[in-house]
TrEMBL record:
One Pfam family in the UniProt entry: LRR_14
GO MF terms, alphabetically ordered: kinase activity
Any one GO BP annotation for this protein: post-embryonic development
PANTHER family xrefs: OS06G0179800 PROTEIN, RECEPTOR KINASE-LIKE PROTEIN XA21
Extent of the signal sequence: 1-44
Protein name, entry field: Putative LRR receptor-like serine/threonine-protein kinase
Keywords: Glycoprotein, Kinase, Leucine-rich repeat, Membrane, Receptor, Repeat, Signal, Transferase, Transmembrane, Transmembrane helix
Length: 1313
């Protein structure tokens, strides 16, 4: 406790020596005696001027008129409080304090300065007002001035410095202002100075350091600022220093170390900083140390252990750190130790438990830790123990049970575990037990009923279980009972009849069940009641008639049913009433006229019906009204708009109808307004713009609010949330929205808003949510959106927005959910910085985006129905819904972008072509991965029509696998349609049409590939195409070509190959149709034609086929082929031509070989029907070197204009077996090479010609000849021939054989018919 000088000490009268007083009293009695004997004698009189001055002073001071009336100012009975000099001539002391009940209420007059002989002026503790007059400075003899504890105003006269005789000055407890005059430094005789409890400002004059005689300096309770002057070196006599309750800053000066005689040092409640100087080693007299409520930091100095006379140490409310030093053993007188609200750590030092005189030990609100030592038994004088808000762990020490004088234990907000020790229940002096916010377990013992003096019991927020013991009914002095937030069970005991002093009750979140006990209604002093978040049930009992002092009543979040009881109307002092979150039914009672001080009313989340009662408008102090989530109907009562104190109004989730009144502008203090999810209709009144304190406005999901959004809404500059979604609002969104700079959430979805998004939205940098989904917005997304650095959610789906997304938008750091689906947005989507957190949801479906950068999506992704060039690169691609083929070329897009994306994304990419094209060029150069080109059947295939290109339409280089599927390429003029330069291993064509194309190379596919490759063509049609190589040119290293079920018709090869030009490899044709194709076919390939039809080809060489290598025709019909040169159907160059089955007819060559011209290769014909073919030589076959093998075939009506109507063997070799030859003109066979024949039948029905003319080595056996002409059947002109075992019949001449020139014929066993 602070030691202050009492007013009686300040007003000490001048003392007179005892012997002098005795003599004066004898003299006085003698004079009085003489006066009584002589009627002629009269009372002594003072001078009239002095009397007048004194009476004037008394009057101005406000003294009562019955005093200071006489003419003798030294008359103590009349002039009370006056002491004169020894001669009774003039006053030397005025002591007007505590004058037998006399109270002075005037002012200090200037005339008091005329009493120049005054040495003491004591008028303090009177309610005198006014200022301290400068005239007081005339009292140069003053040694003692006390004007404290009055009502003085104004400043301290600086002239007081002239009163150099002053030893004591008391100006405290006034209303003085201004600064302390520095002139006080001249008053070197000052001993006691008290200017405390004023309104003084400025700094402490350093001149106080000159007052070396100072014992007391009290400047507390002002507004002094600046640092404490470092002037205490000379003030070694200072005993009491009080600078507390100012605004002083800086550190504690080191010169404080000189105050070794001090008993009181008060520097608390300032703004001092720095550390506490470690200077207390020689402070042997210090009793009271107060440095509290500053900003001091660092450790507690060790030297406090030397304060052996200390009673009180107050260091609370600083920023001290480190451990409490273990140096307190010698503090044998200390009763008060307070270090609360610092940053001290470590454990409680052992020396604390040596403070046997301690009454109050305050260590709360630090960072102390460890187990609380079980050594409290030594602190037998302890009455108050505060360890709250630390980090203590372990059990509550049982030694606390030894503290028989303890009145308060506060260990709240630690980490204490275990049970509450039973020994605590023996502390019958205990008034406050605070163990809340720990981890205590076990039950609340019935023994708690022993603590009969308890005033406060706080056990909340632990893990206490079990029921509330009925023994709490013994705690009849309880004022506060907090047991909430524990896992208790059972009912609330019906014990409140005995707890008549209870004011504060908290049973919240305690898992209690059952009804509210009837005895609850007897708590007539109850002010604060919290029963929320339990499982209390039944009806709310009608027992509250006596609870007239309740100000806070919370029954929310229980299971109460039934109606609101009528006795609630008796809670006339209730300011906070919470009944929400129950199952209450019925209407809201119309008794609110009684609850006039109600501030907060919560009836939300019940099943209340009916309308909102108009009487609610009587609650004029209402600040928060929450009626949400009920079944309320009707309109909002007009009286509600008169609650001018409302700060929060929540009516959401009801069935309210009608409009919003323009009178809403009366609610000017509203910060939160929610009318959402009702059935309100009509326009939003423009007067809502007058609610300028609003931070949240929600009219959303009424579905019926219409009209435009009033521009006045932009006046709500403090809004954080604006929600008007799911209504029928029309018009454009106000561009002035940029005025609401604190907006965090903007919900405008599902209205009928039109126009564009205001760019001013981008200036709202606090936005986290923007939702305009399902409106009719047009225009682009403003580029200013990239400034929304805090945005988390953007939803613009279901509008008509176009253009691209501003490039850096997706790299906004907080972005988590974006839905831009179902718009007209297009262009490239720039990806998200991979160093940023992943997005949760990305919906870009149903737009026209062409490419997508990198995204990491963790929850949901929809990219359906776009124009993406290629499959997006996503870490979570499996989450992304797509119904499009990944790499897709579409009209009006650059195909090179598609291919680049395909090449960079997948090792086996599929590039899709979709749409109807008027012009398309695809260049595959440089893409070394496998690429397949196909089209989307759902998009009617890939169609190229009327294209005129200076470069190949589709150029492929270094692509391993290439497919053409379901395509249409028509009326294209280009160097080539599809050009393959190199790197190909497989080409696949399926269901594709090439028609009416003109190319300078092949009119469909031109391949020049050095590595082996294979070609497959299935179910396609090639017609009316013109190129240097007809339809397909296969150059390079062809491995094989397989053609099946195709049609090749009316194609023209201006150079080589009306249909196919192949420079090698194996060609197989199955079920194909060739008709009216024109060109020369060069090359050496293996050609296999199976079950196909070839008709109407025409070429310079090889009317239908010009092959080099092996040619195989199986069951294929070849007809109408013609050549200007050789090979009406086939020109076979260096290889094997194999014809098996099928037919060859109506083929012609202006040169040689009406069907086949074999140039040095081998021809095999088996089981074929060959007829009506014609050539210059060799109507069917012209063998120019090489070999021919013919078997089991039929040759009919084939003709040559010169020789070899059917076969002309020129310097080759031929083997003919089991075949039939029928001809009506010319000869059938001419051979100048080697020939072997067997089992054949020859019929020459014309009247001229020879069946066979042999000019080389020939062997004929088992043959049959029928000839109608007169020429020999067999003629030899050169070489030799053997003819045997044959049948010959010459119908026109008896000669059957003829040996001419140098030839030799050996005939044997011939039968001539």
């Amino acid at each position: 406790m602070k030691e202050e000088l009492k007013s009686s000490q300040r007003g000490i009268l001048h003392k007179v020596p005892r012997d002098r007083m005795t003599r004066e009293m004898i003299y006085l009695y003698t004079v009085l005696f003489l006066l009584s004997l002589s009627p002629l004698m009269c009372e002594a009189q003072s001078g009239p001027d002095l009397v007048g001055k004194m009476q004037g002073i008394w009057s101005i001071l406000g003294g009562p008129p019955q005093y200071w009336m006489g003419t003798n100012v030294c008359n103590l009975t009349d002039y009370v409080g006056v002491t004169c000099d020894s001669t009774k001539s003039y006053p030397v002391t005025l002591s007007l304090t505590n004058l037998n009940g006399i109270v002075l209420k005037g002012i200090i007059p200037d005339s008091i300065g005329s009493l120049t002989n005054l040495t003491q002026l004591v008028i303090g503790t009177n309610p005198i007002s006014g200022t301290l007059p400068n005239a007081i400075c005339n009292l140069t003899q003053l040694t003692f001035l006390n004007v404290g504890t009055m009502k003085l105003t104004g400043s301290i006269p600086s002239c007081l410095g002239s009163l150099t005789q002053l030893t004591n000055i008391y100006l405290d407890h006034n209303q003085l202002t201004g600064s302390i005059p520095s002139i006080f430094g001249n008053m070197i005789n000052l001993v006691n100075v008290n200017m405390g409890s004023n309104n003084l400002s400025g700094s402490i004059p350093p001149s106080f350091g000159n007052a070396t005689a100072l014992n007391t300096l009290l400047l507390n309770g002002n507004f002094l600022s600046g640092s404490i002057p470092d002037v205490f070196y000379n003030l070694t006599s200072l005993i009491s220093l009080d600078l507390s309750y100012n605004q002083l800053t800086g550190s504690i000066p080191t010169s404080i170390a000189s105050l070794t005689k001090a008993t009181n040092l008060y520097l608390g409640s300032n703004q001092l900083n720095g550390s506490i100087p470690d200077v207390f080693y020689n402070f042997n007299s210090l009793q009271f140390l107060d440095l509290s409520s500053n900003r001091l930091s660092g450790p507690i100095p060790v030297s406090i252990g030397n304060l052996t006379r200390i009673y009180s140490i107050r260091l609370q409310y600083n920023q001290l750190s480190g451990a409490i030093p273990d140096v307190l053993y010698n503090l044998s007188f200390i009763t008060f130790f307070d270090v609360t609200v610092n940053q001290l750590n470590g454990s409680i030092p052992p020396s604390v438990f040596g403070l046997t005189t301690i009454n109050n030990l305050w260590l709360g609100s630090n960072r102390l830790s460890g187990v609380i030592p079980d050594t409290f038994s030594k602190l037998t004088s302890l009455t108050n123990l505060d360890l709250n808000s630390n980090q203590f762990s372990g059990p509550i020490p049982s030694s606390l049970g030894s503290l028989t004088q303890i009145q308060s234990i506060n260990m709240a907000t630690n980490r204490l575990t275990g049970t509450i020790p039973d020994v605590l229940y023996n502390l019958i002096s205990l008034q406050n037990l605070h163990l809340g916010s720990n981890q205590l377990t076990g039950t609340i013992s019935p023994s708690i009923g022993r603590l009969s003096n308890l005033n406060q019991l706080r056990l909340y927020t632990n893990q206490l279980s079990g029921t509330i013991p009925a023994s709490i009914s013994n705690l009849t002095r309880l004022n506060t009972l907090y047991l909430g937030n524990n896992p208790l069970s059972g009912n609330i005991p019906d014990v409140f009849y005995n707890l008549s002093l209870l004011q504060n009750l908290d049973f919240s979140a305690a898992q209690l069940s059952g009804p509210i006990p009837v005895s609850f209604g007897s708590l007539f002093r109850l002010s604060y009641a919290r029963l929320q978040v339990n499982q209390l049930n039944g009806t709310i009992p009608d027992i509250f008639y006596n609870l007239t002092l309740v100000s806070f009543f919370d029954l929310s979040s229980n299971q109460f049913s039934g109606s609101i009881p009528p006795s609630i109307r008796s809670l006339t002092q209730v300011a906070n009433l919470y009944l929400g979150g129950n199952k209450l039914t019925g209407t809201i009672p119309d008794f609110f006229a009684n609850l006039t001080v109600l501030n907060n009313l919560d009836l939300s989340n019940n099943q209340l019906t009916g309308s909102i009662p108009p009487s609610i408008g009587s609650c004029t102090q209402m600040q928060i009204l929450n009626l949400q989530s009920n079944l309320l109907s009707g309109s909002i009562p007009q009286s509600l708009y008169g609650l001018a104190s409302l700060m929060s109004l929540t009516l959401t989730r009801n069935q309210l109808s009608g409009g919003i009144s323009p009178s809403i502008n009366n609610l000017t203090l509203l910060t939160y307004l929610d009318f959402s999810r009702n059935q309100l209709s009509g326009p939003i009144p423009s007067s809502v713009g007058d609610l300028r304190a609003l931070t949240s406005l929600n009219f959303g999901r009424n579905q019926l609010l219409n009209g435009t959004i009033p521009v006045s809404i932009c006046n709500l500059i403090h809004l954080n949330v604006l929600n008007l979604e799911v209504n029928v609002l029309t018009g454009s969104f106000p561009s002035c929205i940029g005025n609401i700079t604190q907006l965090v959430q903007l919900w405008m979805g599902q209205n009928q808003l039109s126009g564009s998004l205001p760019s001013s939205i981008g200036s709202l940098t606090a936005l986290t949510v923007v939702n305009f989904q399902y409106n009719q917005l047009t225009g682009t997304i403003p580029t200013s959106f990239v400034n929304l650095t805090k945005i988390v959610t953007l939803s613009l789906l279901g509008n008509q927005l176009n253009g691209s997304i501003p490039a850096p938008f997706f790299s906004l750091p907080s972005l988590a959910t974006v839905d831009l689906s179902s718009n007209l947005l297009s262009g490239a989507v720039t990806g998200r910085n991979p160093n940023l957190p992943s997005m949760q949801t990305l919906n870009l479906n149903n737009n026209y985006f062409t490419s997508l950068g990198y995204f990491n999506v963790s929850s949901a992704c929809n990219l359906q129905n776009n124009l993406f060039l290629c499959y997006p690169t996503l870490n979570v691609s499996t989450l992304c819904l797509t119904n499009y083929q990944p790499c897709t070329v579409k009209p009006n897009l650059d195909p090179s972008q598609v291919l680049a994306a395909a090449a960079s994304s997948l090792s086996n990419a599929i590039v899709y072509i979709s749409g109807a094209f008027s012009n398309l060029t695809i260049n595959y150069t440089g893409y070394r991965n496998n690429i397949t080109l196909t089209s989307l059947s759902t998009m009617n295939g890939f169609s190229l029509t009327s294209v005129n290109s200076a470069s190949p339409v589709i150029y492929i280089n270094q692509v391993q696998s290439f497919s053409l599927i379901s395509m249409s390429l028509m009326s294209i003029t280009a160097p080539s349609i599809i050009s393959v330069a190199g790197g190909l291993s497989d080409l696949f064509v399926n269901n594709t049409q090439f028609s009416n194309n003109v190319a300078s190379s092949a009119s469909a596919i031109d391949i020049s590939n050095t590595s082996p490759y294979a070609v497959r063509v299935i179910s396609s049609r090639f017609s009316n195409n013109t190129g240097s190589a007809g339809v397909i040119s296969l150059k390079g290293t062809l491995f094989s070509m397989d053609s099946s079920s195709n049609t090749y018709a009316n194609n023209t090869g201006s150079n080589n190959g009306g249909v196919i030009y192949a420079s090698g490899g194996s060609l197989t044709f199955t079920l194909d149709t060739f008709s009216n194709n024109v060109a020369t076919n060069n090359g050496g390939s293996v050609v296999r034609i199976q079950t196909s039809s070839i008709r109407g080809g025409r070429a310079d060489q090889g009317g239908c086929l010009y092959v080099s290598g092996i040619t195989m025709l199986s069951f294929t019909n070849v007809s109408g082929c013609s050549s200007i040169g050789h090979g009406g159907s086939i020109y076979s160059d260096v290889g094997v031509t194999n014809i098996q089955g099928g037919s060859m007819s109506l083929n012609s060559a202006q040169g040689n070989g009406g069907v086949i011209y074999s140039n040095g290769n081998t021809v095999k014909i088996t089981s074929a029907i060959i007829m009506n073919n014609i050539a210059n030589s060799g109507g069917v076959l012209y063998i120019n070197g090489g070999n021919a093998i013919l078997s089991s075939s039929t040759f009919t009506n084939n003709n040559a204009s010169t020789q070899g109507g059917t076969i002309y063997n020129s310097a080759g070799s031929a083997i003919i077996t089991n075949s039939q030859f029928n001809s009506s003109s010319s000869d059938i066979l001419f051979s100048s090479g080697s020939l072997i024949q067997s089992g054949n039948s020859f019929t020459l029905s014309g009247t001229s010609g020879t069946t066979e003319t042999l000019n080389g080595a020939s062997i004929l056996y088992n043959e049959r000849f029928v000839q109608a002409s007169s020429q020999p059947v067999i003629r030899t002109t050169q070489g030799g021939a053997i003819v045997r075992d044959s049948w010959l019949k010459n119908l026109g001449n008896i000669q059957t054989t003829s040996q001419e020139g140098t030839s030799t014929m050996i005939a044997a066993n011939l039968t001539v018919g």
